[in-house]
Amino acid sequence: MSEAAHPAEEPVNRHAFGQVTLLALFVTALITAQLIAAKLLAVPLPADLPVVGAAILLPGGAVAYAITFFASDCYAELYGRRAAQVMVNLAFAMNFVMLGLLATALWAPGADPEFSATFAEALSPAGNIVAGSLVAYLVSQNWDVIVFHRIREYTDGDLLWLRNVASTATSQALDTVIFVTVAFAIAPNLLGIGFALPTGQIVALIVGQYLLKLLIALVDTPFVYLVVGAVRD
C-alpha cells in the first residue's frame, strides 16, 4: 500500500493521555467498588468514638469508590462540566454491562461444581447492595460535578482545593446516607431484598463511612493539583 494509505500517526499529547487515563481510572475504580462492596470491613480505631464505637464499619468498595470522586474532580477541572457528566452517566450504564457479564459467568455451567459454588457465593451481587449503590452513585456523582463547577464559576477558576473538598465532602455525604439507607433499610424492609440492620447500626455505618471518606477527600487534594498541573503544563 502507498504511504498515503497509512499516514504517520501523531504522538499522543498529555491532554489526550490524561483524558483516557482519568476515564480508565474512574471506570476501573467504579466497577471494582461494585464487585467488592458486599464484604463489610471493620477498620479498628485507637479509641472508641461516639456513635461509631471502636471500629469504622464500611463496605469493601469504599476506598475504590472514593477514588472515583478524585478522578471525576480532575476530569471536571480539565475537560469541563458537560464532559464530566457524560463520563458519570456513561459509567453508570457500564454498571449494567458488568452485572450482565457477571450474571452470564454465574449462570453458565462450570467444569468444577465445587469451585462454581464458591465462585457464585463470593461474587453473586447482593440485591440490596446493588440497589443502594446504583441509586447513591447516580445522585452523588452528578451532584459532585454540579457543585464543583458552581464553585468554579463563583471563584473565577481559582481555589481548586475548595471546590475539590467541598464537592467531594457534600457528594460523599449524600452517597453514604443514600447507600446505607437504601441497602440496609429501604430495600430489605420495603422490597424484601437483602438483610435489614437496626437503626443504631445504620447510623454508626453512616457516620463511620463518612468520616473515612472525608479524610480521603482532604488527603487527595494535593494529588488533584498534581494531576491537573501535569496534564495542563
List low-confidence stretches: none
Counted beta strands: 2
Major beta sheet, specifics? 2 strands, antiparallel
Order of helices and strands: HEEHHHHHHH
**Strand order of the biggest β-sheet:** 1-2
Task: Walk me through what this model shows.
The two termini are 39 Å apart. This protein is mostly helical. The protein has helices at 14-36, 62-79, 81-107, 113-123, 127-154, 160-191, 199-219, 221-232; strands spanning 40-49, 53-59. The protein has eight helices and two strands, in the order H-E-E-H-H-H-H-H-H-H. It is 74% helix and 7% strand. A two-stranded antiparallel sheet has the order 1-2. The chain has one domain (10-232).
Task: From the structure above, extract its key features.
single chain, 233 residues, mainly alpha, two-stranded antiparallel sheet, 8 helices, 2 strands, globular
Briefly say what this structure is.
This protein has helices spanning 14-36, 62-79, 81-107, 113-123, 127-154, 160-191, 199-219, 221-232; strands at 40-49, 53-59. The chain is mainly alpha-helical.
